Amino acid sequence: MMTENYKILSEFIKDISAETPDIESYLFVKENISKYHLTININSKALKNKMIEVCTTLKYQDKDASEKKSYFEINYATIIKIIEEIKDKKVLEKILLCDVQKKIYPRLEKALLNLIHDSGFHSVQFEKKIDFEKLYKEQFN
Question: What is the pLDDT of residues 3-58, one digit of tens each?
């Protein structure tokens, strides 16, 4: 087992949003929410002292151009510290896009699901697990 070359210092919800504009939209979405898609976006910015802020944004939304729709989004920040010198950019990218994500994702997914359920859509489950290894490889190969 490789020792980890980074440490998570803290993680928090930076921004969270749920929108269902009116009762008509709610009823329509309740019927159609199975068509909604989960998308993920990850970006990062360097802080001082070898720290990096990693922002993971999850959106659950209607890909179709329906007029009646709900929208759910969570922006989750993770502050990590790089423990040892990393010379290879690829190693760093794997930490940010893959290793950190695998650690935080269960909490992030739970927060988004709670938001969706609390917004009145109790039946929503995320069947598909996000494969961060695969995402990382797709982005860099």
Answer: 689 999 999 999 999 999 999 999 999 999 999 999 999 999 999 999 999 999 99
Cα separation, 1 vs 10, whole angstroms:
24
**Phi, psi (degrees; rounded to nearest 5) at 3:** -75, 145
Q: Residue 48 belongs to what domain range? A: 6-140
Contact 93, 87 (CB under 8 A): no
Residue 1 has pLDDT above 80, yes or no: no
Provide the whole-model pTM.
Answer: 0.89
- Cα–Cα dist 114/117, whole Å: 5
Q: Which of 35, 42, 25 is nearest to 60 (CA)?
A: 35
Q: Is residue 1 part of a domain?
A: no
Closest to 72 in 3D by CA, of 44, 102, 40? 40
Tokens matching residue 55? 């922002």
